[in-house]
Amino acid sequence: MKSQPKIGTTGEFTFVVAPEHVITFATDGMPAVLSTPNLIGLIERTARESLHPFLEADERTVGSEIELRHLAPSPLGARVTITVRVIHTEGRQIGFQVEARDEHELIARGLHTRGVIRTGSFAKRVHGKTKA
């Protein structure tokens, strides 16, 4: 790493809930709302992008843990803002507090941990698992 992110470093991402973000079982009166798996993916993206300035060219971060409470639904067309804040660093592990809000309320909160990896050694490890 070029440098460790300071406690309090933040990242933010805003998006509009689109058809690709909603639950797949929105039928028979069930409204189309933001799905938890899609929300988790966007939280990870926000955290990953917030760490980019701290990384060397051959480093990336990978998610290793997430603890999330999805508290409220957000319908198609809702504007959602995800905020991540570094709360802990230990070696190559970075911990975040995460929140997501739509225009009306807090919709999710939790914790997320990312690990810094070197792309070469990571690729070698993955390749070792794909050998016939």
Write up this protein:
The model has no long low-confidence stretch (mean pLDDT 96). The protein starts with 9 loop residues before the first strand and ends with a helix. The protein has a five-stranded antiparallel beta sheet. It has 132 residues and is of the alpha+beta class. It is built from two helices and five strands; from the N terminus they run E-H-E-E-E-E-H. It has a single domain (10-130), classed as Roll (Thiol Ester Dehydrase, Chain A), CATH 3.10.129.10.
Regarding CATH, which class?
Alpha Beta
Average pLDDT, rounded to a whole number, is 96
The tally of strands reads: 5
N-to-C span: 34 Å
Q: Please give the largest β-sheet.
A: 5 strands, antiparallel
Second rung of CATH, namely the architecture: Roll
CATH topology: Thiol Ester Dehydrase, Chain A
Number of separate structural domains: 1
Tally of individual helices = 2
Alpha-beta content class? alpha+beta
**How much helicity do the residues have?**
10-25%
- What string gives the helices and strands in order? EHEEEEH
Radius of gyration: 17 Å
Residue runs with pLDDT of under 50 for 5 or more positions: none
Shape: globular
Q: How much of the residues is beta strand, in percent? A: 35-45%
Summed up:
This protein has 132 residues and is of the alpha+beta class. 21% of the residues lie in helices and 40% in strands. It is globular, with a radius of gyration of 17 Å.
Which terms would index this structure?
2 helices, five-stranded antiparallel beta sheet, 132 residues, alpha+beta, single chain, Thiol Ester Dehydrase, Chain A
